[in-house]
Write a structure and sequence with these properties.
Its cofactor is Mg(2+). It holds the Pfam family UPRTase. There is one protein chain. By secondary structure, the chain is an alpha/beta fold. The protein has one domain: 3-Layer(aba) Sandwich (Rossmann fold), CATH 3.40.50.2020. Helix 1 runs antiparallel to helix 2 and helix 2 crosses helix 3. The chain binds 1-O-pyrophosphono-5-O-phosphono-alpha-D-ribofuranose, uracil (URA) and magnesium ion. 1-O-pyrophosphono-5-O-phosphono-alpha-D-ribofuranose binds next to strand 6, strand 9, helix 4 and helix 6.
């Protein structure tokens, strides 16, 4: 599995704002928005482009556009904080939605929403979720997508735990991960250490 860490000073700065326990919800959301732009920018670097001749006011030249705009799939709730920024970068993208809540005891995802196009054959998919912890929520999401024919899936996460990466690797699912950090470990409650706490609660309040 290809894992790409976006190790850029500006990404580190936004991530540090998100990690800081003193950061309030509005500033946390703003930092996640900005980090999302950097992660999506890197994740789409190798995407095939369509070239067509265009006219500048001065001359003819090649114009570029994504050959096949990806499907964006934010995983609710926390992934919602990445959706608008990703969509601004790729305005032609269609968006699907998956809603999952991790059970605090078992750490297994409980699904409550699935809104996806019927067929995803030949369509790249970008899954947006700031946190990859045990990897259970991402595995669940990827299986929904591959069940609809997706073969080109990229998970875009602010943070990942080594345990979650290893878990996804073991599944053998066709997946690439783009993240700003692979942290140290998970704690006994399944939280990423040092992490940033609960990404959904920090954006929207505790449920
Ligand atoms: O890798 P995992 O161990 O599955 O954990 C990661 C999941 O946990 C968080 O969601 P959460 O269940 O807290 O829901 P929320 O977004 O509504 O807060 C996060 O946004 C991921 O979806
Ligand atoms: O550290 C973690 C782990 C799972 N989900 C979160 O929001 N944070
Ligand atoms: Mg949460």
């Amino acid at each position: 599995m290809d894992v790409h860490v976006v190790d850029h000073p500006l990404a580190k700065a936004r991530l540090s704002t998100m990690r800081d326990a003193r950061t309030d919800s509005a500033a946390f959301r703003a930092a996640l928005h900005e980090l999302t732009v950097m992660l999506v920018y890197e994740a789409t670097r190798e995407m095939p482009v369509r070239i067509e001749r265009i006219h500048t006011p001065v001359a003819r030249t090649d114009g570029y556009a994504l050959a096949s705009p990806p499907l964006l799939v934010p995983v609710l709730r926390a992934g919602l904080g990445m959706a608008d920024q990703a969509h601004k970068l790729i305005p032609d993208a269609q968006m699907g939605f998956v809603g999952l809540a991790r059970d605090e005891e078992t750490l297994k995802p409980t699904p409550y929403l699935e809104s996806l196009p019927e067929s995803l054959a030949d369509r790249p998919v970008l899954v947006l979720d700031p946190m990859l912890a045990t990897g259970g929520s991402m595995e669940y999401t990827i299986r929904l997508l591959t069940g609809r024919g997706a073969t080109d899936v990229t998970a875009i996460c602010a943070l990942a735990a080594p345990e979650g990466i290893a878990h996804l690797e073991k599944t053998g699912l066709p997946l690439r991960v783009v993240t700003a950090s692979i942290d140290e470990r998970l704690n006994d409650s399944g939280f990423i250490v040092p992490g940033l706490g609960d990404a959904g609660d920090r954006q929207y309040g505790a449920v």
